[in-house]
Design a protein that fits this description.
This protein is mainly α and 280 residues long. Helix content is 68%, strand content 0%. Helix 7 crosses helix 9. The longest helix is centred in the N-terminal third of the chain and has 40 residues.
Length: 280
């Protein structure tokens, strides 16, 4: 169902706003997780938990990490504020990372693409939710090598709920996809650990592939794993060759799963059919 230009434009503007919020999630969620872990460890040791300024995704208001200047509403307009300020803090003129507007632009483009491809449907809304989660997980994993349960687990359940109504696949395929996604990487993890004594990936990768399986169904999982492994291998080799990235330095796998998951959500079935046709 094709979308009209007005809906596509509205989706793009909405995506810009969501991208601005994703920047907050990407920055704050790992800090919130670390503080929670420190508090739990202190409690287990019978010590007083370290005191920090209250931090949530909503409070306090965003501010410059260099001078503490509080970002006003006019300074927080997606992309526009960055351009008006010349990419610098209004208070101390420190440079603002271009990643912030890039995340906003990419999210706006991705939401517009979803609206264009899927029209005014529940599938478009689901695709936007899925894309937003994948963007946040990709950048958090790049920064910290963490895939937060606060994102992966709700994403898994959301996929099952959408497919309870057959939005992307039938419910049976979604449940099997979630179970198979987790168990496949769990098995790879343990086989690698038994063979080498090392951990090849984190548990967050299992949960992310389970979430992807819940959205796309079990039949698309082989394509997802193949695509993510191929991209991960190419990037890993390039890093070792071009930047002398050591073999013992871990490379996050979540971003490649996320990229493959988005491809699978939009084109998984035709790509799988084409692959099987070529294989036969």
């Amino acid at each position: 169902m094709a979308a009209d230009p007005g809906l596509i434009a509205l989706a793009a503007v909405f995506g810009l706003a969501v991208g601005s919020f994703l920047n907050v999630v990407i920055h704050r969620l790992p800090i919130m997780m670390e503080r929670d872990w420190l508090s739990q460890c202190a409690e287990l040791r019978g010590e007083t938990a370290p005191e920090h300024e209250p931090l949530t995704l909503a409070t306090p208001r965003s501010r410059c990490p260099h001078c503490g200047h509080r970002i006003t509403a006019l300074e927080n307009i997606p992309v526009v504020s960055y351009l008006v300020l010349g990419g610098r803090c209004r208070g101390c003129r420190a440079r603002i990372s271009p990643r912030y507007p890039l995340v906003e632009i990419f999210t706006g483009f991705a939401f517009a693409f979803a609206a264009w491809q899927l029209g005014p449907t529940a599938a478009a809304a689901g695709a936007m939710l899925f894309i937003a989660a994948m963007i946040a997980l990709t950048l958090i994993d790049f920064d910290t090598q963490l895939l937060p349960d606060d994102i992966t687990l709700p994403l898994l359940w959301a996929g099952l709920l959408f497919n309870a109504f057959g939005v992307f696949t039938d419910l049976k395929s979604a449940v099997l996809g979630a179970a198979a996604g987790y168990l496949i990487l769990w098995s790879v993890y343990w086989m690698f650990k038994l063979a080498t004594g090392k951990e090849g990936m984190g548990f967050g990768d299992f949960k992310l592939l389970a979430a992807i399986g819940a959205w796309t169904g079990w039949a698309v999982l082989p394509l997802t794993i193949l695509l993510s492994s191929f991209v991960g291998a190419v990037v890993g080799i390039a890093l070792m060759v071009l930047t002398k990235h050591g073999r013992d330095v871990p490379i996050p796998f979540g971003p490649y799963l996320a990229i493959a998951g988005v491809i699978a959500l939009f084109w998984g079935k035709p790509l799988t059919s084409a692959y099987l046709h070529l294989a036969i």
